[in-house]
Automatic annotation (TrEMBL):
GO molecular function: electron-transferring-flavoprotein dehydrogenase activity; flavin adenine dinucleotide binding
One term under GO cellular component: cytoplasm
Coiled-coil intervals, chain numbering: none
Pfam family, one: Pyr_redox_2
Domain of life the protein comes from: Eukaryota
FAD/NAD(P)-binding domain residues: 50-336
Organism: Trichoderma harzianum CBS 226.95
InterPro entries on file: FAD/NAD-bd_sf (IPR036188), FAD/NAD-binding_dom (IPR023753)
Protein name (record): FAD/NAD(P)-binding domain-containing protein
Amino acid sequence: MLEKAGLYTKVVGYTLYVIWAELRLALGAAIIRRQASWFGSLGAEKRTRNIVIVGASFAGYRVAQIVAKALPPRSPYRVVVIEPNSHFQFTWVLPRFCVVQGHEHKAFIPYGGNMKGAIEGSYRWVKDKVANIDRTAVKLQDSGEVIPYEFLVIATGAGVKDGLPSRVNATDKLEGMKLLQGMQKGVESANTVVVVGGGAAGVEVATDAKALYPEKHIILVHSRPAVMHRFGRGLQKAAREGLERLGVELILEDRVVDEDASSKVVTLKSGRKISYDFYMNCAGQRPLSDVIANLSPNSISSTGHIKVKPTLQIDDDSLPNVYTCGDVADTKTPNPNSRSGTRQATVVAENIVLAAAGKKPRHIYKNQWVDGIIKLTLGLDRSVTHLGDGISELLFSSKETDEALMSAMCWSRMGEKPFEDKYMDDHSAEVEADSSKVPV
Ligand SMILES: Cc1cc2nc3c(=O)[nH]c(=O)nc-3n(C[C@H](O)[C@H](O)[C@H](O)COP(=O)(O)OP(=O)(O)OC[C@H]3O[C@@H](n4cnc5c(N)ncnc54)[C@H](O)[C@@H]3O)c2cc1C
Ligand SMILES: NC(=O)c1ccc[n+]([C@@H]2O[C@H](COP(=O)([O-])OP(=O)(O)OC[C@H]3O[C@@H](n4cnc5c(N)ncnc54)[C@H](OP(=O)(O)O)[C@@H]3O)[C@@H](O)[C@H]2O)c1
């Protein structure tokens, strides 16, 4: 009882801290804008010293937003964001939109909203991918442009080879929407669906599929004795009950060791073979650190993460100007997620603003268990929210009424009106033409 009261207190403390941090940043940005309007600012052509940010998802976009708005109006620095995706890809809804039809466009949020209010010349946005990094510059994949940097942020996150349900693996919104529609059609036309991996992605997609299509045989194969095994026992139990309530067949302590796509049979480590009509790989992601393989190979850990100092500078004394945050960073965060990535991004941004002013970076990142809060959907109409500090845990069950989950909130948080997107108007002919011949 006392432990639970302690948990509530910590949650309240954390919430107040987050609100205070947001207010502080917003106030700082407002002062910079006011200074720029009173005394003028240095134009883009005079801002020749680059702070290059590689990747603009939860972590990188946040660094860009804070730094661009915090650089003084006459700073010679500017932010250069390099991101291959046409839109911010909202991972939270991907498992849901692989099953439920009609919301695909909501998973792709236009970029730009979070940069509103940054003074002119404070940032440049480049749609491309970084192919190589040396000690002074990054080289882009498509244009071949070489962009020198004085500060560098690696926020390349994590990825999967097979793409959906976990990651889109397409840079363009329309292409991503088609991939989601292909998954939906695959589930819709299957009798038996095999889902591999009982982490959050696997549990969510399996429960959604069974909730929408109760007549189908949905099988979830997971390597460990319990689904959601990286979380507390309460969540493990709730997830299992959610799967069983719907009638998902659960195979635990076994692994898929072979998937034969031509005969549509998976083989498990135990020797068991399962025929399927549709297969969904939710076996987990790997950090995308290859981008620094030439720059600082020794900073890549055995898990593929980038080793960091508490200031989130990479763990290479010869590169004090290189930072990292989010899923790619080796922060020992027990449950890496958008909250921990965003908090790390704030630390990186504030350190870079200090360093660009000639000061020592002094902000440090410490894991806080509250970052690990998870809201797990267990079918279309319910979810469970879990928080735990390793000693005690709290679980809240909720009814869900919004099929698109938190899409609208995320669009608003990204400074965009849900779900207005000029890109969709510009591509309306293609969207209509495709709606009649969705790929399976
Ligand atoms: C299916 C799923 C559901 C999830 N649901 C939740 C949830 O409900 N709540 C929650 O808090 N967290 C959730 N997460 C976790 C959350 O999505 C991640 O923690 C978060 O996306 C990490 O953000 P990031 O910026 O570090 O990296 P990422 O989101 O992985 O983004 C990295 C970015 O870098 C770009 N990039 C990569 N390589 C290069 C390069 N060479 N050059 C330029 N750009 C590059 C990519 O295009 C991408 O935009 C979920 C994750 C998944 C997979
Ligand atoms: N609602 C949410 O907040 C939400 C939703 C989705 C994802 N996420 C986050 O996104 C990240 C990725 O999640 P994820 O679910 O994609 O990955 P994950 O958490 O790594 O889970 C994948 C699981 O699949 C198991 N597995 C791997 N290969 C297997 C195989 N061949 N056969 C059977 N099981 C296998 C892994 O266990 P082994 O270790 O034994 O290989 C692992 O436990 C996590 O941080 C997660 O918390 C959050």
